[in-house]
Amino acid sequence: MAAPVIQVENLTKSFGDRLLFGDLTFGISEGEKIGLVARNGTGKTTLLKILAGEDTPDSGKIIPRNGLRIGYLEQLPQFPEGVTVMEACLSSSGPVVDAVKAYHHALDSGNETAISEAMHNMDATEAWDYEQRLTQMLSQVNITDTSAIIDTLSGGQRKRVALAAALLENPDLLILDEPTNHLDIAATEWLDDYLSRSRLTVFMVTHDRYFLDRVCNRIFEIDGAELFAYDGNYDYYLRRRAERHQAAATELDRVKNTLRKEQDWMSRQPQARAGKAKFRIDAYYSLVERSRGGAKEKDVNLDVKSSRIGSKIFEARDISKKFGDKIILDGFTYDFAKGEKVGIVGGNGVGKSTFVKMLMGILPQDSGEWNVGETVRFGYYSQEGLELNPEKKVIDAVTELADDIVVNGNVHFTPMQFLKRFLFEPSDQQKYIGGLSGGERCRLQLAVVMMRSPNFLILDEPTNDLDIMTLTVLEDYLREFSGCVIVISHDRYFLDSITDHLFVMEGEGTVKDFPGNYSEYNEWKKAQDKKAEKNSVPSADKAPKKEKTQKKERKSYAEQKEFERLEKEIEELSSEKQELEEQFNTGGDSEIILKAAERYEEVKRLLDEKELRWLELDEKD
Predict the structure, then answer these.
(1) CA 333/CA 141 separation, integer angstroms
(2) Tens-digit pLDDT profile for residues 5-44
(3) Helix 438-450 to helix 394-401 angle, to the nearest 10 degrees?
(4) 314-526: which CATH architecture?
């Protein structure tokens, strides 16, 4: 059985008079990768902070393993002002970073005893090449200048710096709060590959469902202040969650049927039931309570039809745009058809947001023209967020935009009624915009967009702060949306769910129109890259000596056979390890358990050796 890393018992936390979660009890074992799923406002980030020691519960206990090292990536990391990227990483705390800092301090002091001790600590933590490894990892998340001042970086770039530093610490338990926010798709795919192959123990919150599916082997859900655990990936969790909800609905129906009979009994004259058993009266009140337990959390209501849209949508004619030497578009021409749903993808900085801002008329193009149809009514969800006064209350800001909201042609709402469709209860509508959470701001922005009944939606990174439940509602709405959609997103699942084709911005002004969703494009691109790599290998008579040296990094025939054998052995050892863990759980004869424990340690050692060798061979072509 995998060794426990941390145990949580009866954890409770409230925010004001609102219970976030109550009496949570669970454990995290070595090697587990757990994804936490819940609606916005139910305490996901709070739970992560409590586990990381950044917050305290109202009651309950957290029992970490002795000497447990915890790494924590915040949703919005903070760094000292005025430091470089490298200095910011070294300003964090952890065994490796502390060893590097102590070594530099000892060198500055000139104390030979301190230097000797610091060198010993550098050996023990394997920290000698930390700065080199950090530079390499930063490049994987598109941070290439380690001398850049951290204050000049965007929030997303600072998040990536913190992510690289957290991964390099290799803690016993890594806690991640929305690690894929502000990563482009390439960096997200690199991260899910890195975490999937590593033996790190991970506890994370993310709305990226492909990421959850590929990385996690366990899913926790907070629902109604309770925690439900599912042993499996996200796809397995969805199936089991549906079964749980169906069972709960069936039980609720049974309770209500019984309650109707008991209500008839209770409504009789007091003398008719005076001699009845007290337990039946108590059971009645218990049924009343149970019948109230089936109330489901409300979903955002996006039942807003698009207004009529004509046959002419928009035409792009020879659009060009550049900033200095950086080319965004170069002679882009396209006729947008009715009902099209297109995703825009590309690396950070290629100009995806600039593209839609030109279409909206927010930014001017250098040359060319957009011809937009007269019936087109844009709804723009901006990555930058709301352009509403943060010092105003939610209800006041929306009322200023419209005091009578008409949707679907003839359905009228007051601002208060319309905001309730987006989960803003009257008390929430009195909040100041500046004090809203990220999820609340996203829901408010959706409300502002939808209140105009748009027929052409432009969504720039809509998924960053929305919970999975709201994302699912939005996806269902967009699939049925009769108007046109342009979406910029790094969320692969979201793109696959709603897009017909993609505009792939490849840089230097080039835009490729790919006829398929993101997963199809990704498979096509991998095949193209493999083909290009194969064609680029020079023939033996033309290859320079340098290339011949590089060819030694390709697997030999013997290494290829070893690689295939290792895959099979690792699979067999993993199965044996799982069987041994199940044996520990069921108990049995002490002598048999002792022998099984010895074999378990041997299996773990063999797995480590073979996985390390597999990774070495996997680096070769």
Answers:
(1) 32
(2) 999 999 999 987 788 899 999 999 999 999 999 888 788 9
(3) 20
(4) 3-Layer(aba) Sandwich (3.40)
